[in-house]
Specification:
Elements (H helix, E strand, L loop, with lengths): L1 H19 L45 E10 L2 E2 L10 E7 L2 E6 L2 E6 L8 E4 L7 E9 L2 E6 L7 E5 L5 E5 L5 E9 L9
Antiparallel strand pairs: 1-2, 1-3, 1-11, 3-4, 4-5, 6-7, 7-8, 8-9, 9-10, 10-11
């Protein structure tokens, strides 16, 4: 009887210990970098990249996690006309630590927002899914900033406005400014119509 009581005590101690155990921290470094598949990913977002990551967001990072759809767009200060393809644009952003994965336009931009060129986006252009792009990424005062290497003076930015919309600015595309609304979470599936 004594050994049964000791065994039961050990089992209870193990169960109590596992209930109080902290979950393992999964860092952004633990997850391989994602790249655009040949020809782009098509109409359906690939599986989430950072869904298992538990590392907290970097202190200066805006929380852009989610699926975002265009609400309005301006080019050179003029509202884009109805029917402009920008109105069908949807992107998904995942974040973990200082890492950010942005899927949109058929491409996957996976980067560390630390200002180091080697940690930036090393992928392909959404225009042809072939031309290599190299982009330095940073978080600056709650703004996500991309600076393409070899194109001085260009900064692509994403930030949240007071209403929780994402403001995306592309000066390289006719001073394109897009306001997007969050329509889903970063791990939700989405297929373009």
């Amino acid at each position: 009887m004594k050994s049964a009581a000791v065994f039961a005590g050990c089992v209870l101690a193990l169960l109590a210990g596992s209930a109080n155990a902290k979950p393992k921290l999964v860092r952004a470094d633990d997850i391989p970098v994602a790249h655009t598949p040949t020809g782009g990913y098509g109409k359906t977002f690939p599986a989430p990249v950072l869904s298992t990551c538990t590392e907290p967001l970097a202190p200066d990072a805006p929380d852009l996690r989610g699926i975002w759809k265009t609400l309005k767009a301006d080019r050179n200060g003029v509202t884009a006309p109805e029917g402009d393809r920008i109105y069908s644009y949807v992107e998904r952003i995942e974040q973990c630590g200082n890492r950010i994965v942005d899927m949109g336009g058929g491409t996957i931009a996976d980067a560390r927002a630390d200002g180091v060129a080697e940690h930036g986006v090393q992928d392909v252009s959404a225009f042809d899914y072939k031309t290599p792009i190299h982009v330095i990424a940073t978080f600056e005062d709650k703004v996500f900033v991309l600076r393409p290497i070899g194109i001085p003076g260009i900064q692509v930015t994403r930030r949240l406005d007071a209403d929780g919309h994402m403001i995306w600015v592309r000066p390289d595309l006719g001073k394109l400014t897009v306001t997007l609304e969050r329509i889903g979470g970063p791990n939700d599936p989405y297929t373009r119509p």
